[in-house]
Amino acid sequence: MTAPVENAKRIRSSEELGKLVQQARREQSLLQSDIAGLAGTGNRFIVDLERGKPTLQLQKVLDVLDLMGLEVVIRRKGSHHD
Predict the structure, then answer these.
(1) How far apart are CA 68 and CA 21, in angstroms?
(2) Domains of the chain, residue spans
């Protein structure tokens, strides 16, 4: 059994994910262009991600999250343990 996820944040929309990414970027004192350069994507992609654009390519989003030290954890609703 895996330990509970620390500092977990429930995300229910692309807008909520965008705000979380923006907050994490600012906490790391990074510019949007910094993330874009490190992720090998255009600055526009990071802008769209932070604005919550719902049609972004999932793999690119996952790559940016990983780059920022974030991860996606999927579990059944109502489940309190992994």
Answers:
(1) 8
(2) 14-67
State the Cα angle at 13 between 49 and 17, rounded to 5°: 40
Tokens in use for 24?
């994490």
Is 14-67 in CATH node 1.20.1270.10? no
Give the separation between CA 75 and CA 70, rounded to whole angstroms: 16
Q: H or E element: which one contains 23?
A: helix 14-27
Instruction: Supply the pTM of this predicted model.
Output: 0.84
> Residue 77: pLDDT above 90?
no
* Per-residue b or e along 10-36, where b marks 16 or more CB atoms closer than 10 Å to that residue's CB: eeeebeebbbbbbebbeeeebebeebb
Question: What is the SS3 assignment for 52?
Answer: coil
